[in-house]
User: Fold these one by one.
Assistant:
Number 1:
Amino acid sequence: MTPSPDTTAPLRTTRVLSAEEIAMQAGRQMPFVRLPVRAAVFSDRQLRLRQLAASHPMRDYLLFVADLAAAQHLVLKDCPDIAIPDPTACMAAAKALKPPTPAFGWSRDPVWRAELRRLLDTFGATLAAGPVKDTVDRLRAAPDDWIDSQADRLSRRITLGLDLATAPLIAAGLQVYWTQLAIHTAAAHGERVFGHTEPGTLCPCCGSVPTASITRIGAEDAGFRYLHCSLCSTQWHYVRIKCTHCESTKGIHFEELAPVDANAEARATAARPGAIKAECCDVCSHYLKQVSMEKDSEVEPVADDLASVALDLLVSDAGMDRSGHNLMLLFGDPEPDNDGGGG
């Protein structure tokens, strides 16, 4: 399904916080890591997607991802125990400033494929006959080695040889697995097992790049910015006004969609005005979207990122490259491969 967002709204540049304004918050304490909540992570996502889908040009796709998130929620709710790193491995990772369960090096527990197929059964039960159901059935019947090879490509952000039709489904299974892995590892070893990594732009749990950042509200972390992992949904603190790609603090500015009439912003982003911005870096010419709970308390990074593709297109036209990654919205023109049977 090809998204067709409204891209008629121009960009609007907004002032960044001054050093003094940031310094006012410097003495406050906040949790470094915010782990995904089993009962809420995918449930909140699917609810937000349904809210955003109303009158949105990408309505059908947002509802597709919402239904997929609903299935993810049901699978995660009673996901079985899986293999986790032992204390020695966790200590070694911490000493090296690396995540303990890296997406690019952790050996996936074979149970992840069983849970993927359970996810496909749950999701497929909601579908009418048609291309989407055919794709679900094809993936359910695919050989394990083909599924693992596709998962490897997704984990490494490789589009060559990637089956784009099944990619969001496999990604959904990987998200459930790594979310369970984050929750299970923290339960066994404590949240402090996820410490600072080098570089600090990568998830302290799995080493993946963020989808977006979120400026939070609440007693502990009001006004602080967290990066939201594209794979395991862990959030980790990252200072504001600092590039999430090259880590520069110079040349940072924000862009957002400026409505051309009273309803344009709702059409372009489906969020409240000011809730979705692109943090742009003039040093490396990359950007990452930032969602603000102060402007819209119901924002959800993955959902609002999907619903604001118009902002991506306009910022890209201005010469910026996206540093974030959304596993539910993959682009590419991969060449066919011959690794076994998914196509």
Number 2:
Amino acid sequence: MGAIQSYEEFISFQSQQIYLKHFFADKSSSQLDTIDKSPIILLHESLGSVALWKQFPQTLANATGREVIAYDRIGFGLSSDCNEQLEHDFVWAEAQGAFKAIVDACELKQFIVLGHSVGGGMALSIAAAYPSQCLAVISISAQAKVEQLTLDGISAAKENFKAPELFQRLAKYHGEKTQWVLDAWTETWLAPAFATWHLSHVLNQIYCPVQVIHGDIDQYATQSQPEQIASQVKGEVQLCILEECGHFPHQEKTAEVVQFVQHFVSVLS
């Protein structure tokens, strides 16, 4: 069997460091020609990190034959600390700031973006911001607006993370950043000023192919979320609703999600 291929690096962004991990197809499990194929860049959710994607990036690289690049946003995982509260336009701001630093550092001419939850909103924002470079976008459990179900789920999670065992479990991935990570999620989304946040102005600027993956029992979003994304983007859309699946399709239904993505990107350069 061939060895799994990956490597890690840090790139500079302003005065900070962004942690990246690159995954390549294991030749023993994939005979796909990876030459000149555009990479897939992953954007994690509100409590996420490169490590919390677990085996998904490598599995996706093996299935698609493409390089998969995952990174920790500033304030998360192994990237630099963030001591500031998130601005309410942080989803769109990621496309303009740290993501651009990654594109420049990796010298990416074209790419595919895949994001989970708030990372899905960021991926959609990137597709709008980079129309000539972004070949396609895949959103998994993304939110396009603030719903009461979302707020209820976040409020419940905020209470649950008061339990030391849950906090320590998350701290394995974020270390001393853990409280900031939690607050960046809960206090941003639950702030009254954030109640009117939406992505409508972003969605109508997306002309590349879009794949929308969503679980039918997502505890943070109703079906109106993927339906809004699918109806407002201008590019060709694939809407994939997974039955008996919650907010983490790539973990709960890994094989199905990988198959969806593999088929979706197979026609792209």
Number 3:
Amino acid sequence: MAIRLGDTAPDFTADTTEGPISFHQWKGDSWAVLFSHPKDFTPVCTTELGYTATLAEEFARRNVKVIGLSCDSVDDHVAWSQDIEDTQGIRPNFPMIGDADRTVADLYDMIHPNASDTMTVRSVFVIGPDNAVKLTITYPASTGRNFDEVLRVIDSLQLTATKKVATPVNWQQGDDVIIVPALSNEEAAELFPDGWDEQKPYLRVVAQP
């Protein structure tokens, strides 16, 4: 069954390149990015894992833990890490789940039979501190992901989780935002005393709080 936004991310235990984990316990009260790659020792995945490793400080600054998965063994992940370092200049600095029996892949609906019966698609799950699924993205095996976009969405999710705003098209950290329509002008005036640009009654643009 597909996982929907707002669902509780399924818990699981698994072996990883950093030892056995219980997912919810490992995640704690952090945010998390759980992402699958189709197979070890494949070209697109090699570039993805290398780039994700370069973003370690960016994820840490946002209180985000990253964990990868494929339907390969932990031993394969460890061996592949050397190839990733050889070609990308850095080895994965986050745990990778060994899921040869597809337990986690099935739990998160990462295998799409119309695409492949044996390989996970490029799934991304962003999970909040409350263990609720905040974002899902699914890419085909042939298309590498944009992890800068994943960071951008996390910035938006973390901002809108605590402020009564939404982020407009192509928003980047520090750009203007939109006051949520559910907030009346009287309520908005209390939260945004410096005012806003009311382009339409439902489109009130304000500096990022």
Number 4:
Amino acid sequence: MDIHQDLATIALQEARLRFKGFDEETAWTLGCLLRSSATARGAAVVIEVRLARETVFFHAMPGTAPANADWARRKRNTVELLHRSSYAIGLAMQKEDSSLEKKMGLPPRDYASHGGSFPIAVEGVGCIGVVTVSGLPQREDHQLVVQALAALTGVPVQDITLK
């Protein structure tokens, strides 16, 4: 894994994975797609979709623990504050040999810069919510979310996949 290449790819993901519109029905579709994808992989994850800081979809699959929901909360807090993918933020912190606590004074108990949370953006509007997955290694959490967003936005996933 090359941090510079991954950061460039994630920037491309953030630029391209935008919806024309997004509402509670779309959130339900996204949450169910993530659940189906995780089930097909034999993975147990927590899935959360939020709009305007309100949870509109939450599912904890059998095999997850309360810690997974807490990780999702911490990653989601980071994306809600910074409007960037939690994985991109984590890689940037790693590249700078820093942390959210050192750089911004954010307590690690409430903010995590680990992969799996991604801004929900609408064309011409910007970030209106967050989708988060927790339960897999962080790069896999991130990729699970990106694949679902690509499917729903019509972006060919092979054009934006981390190498």
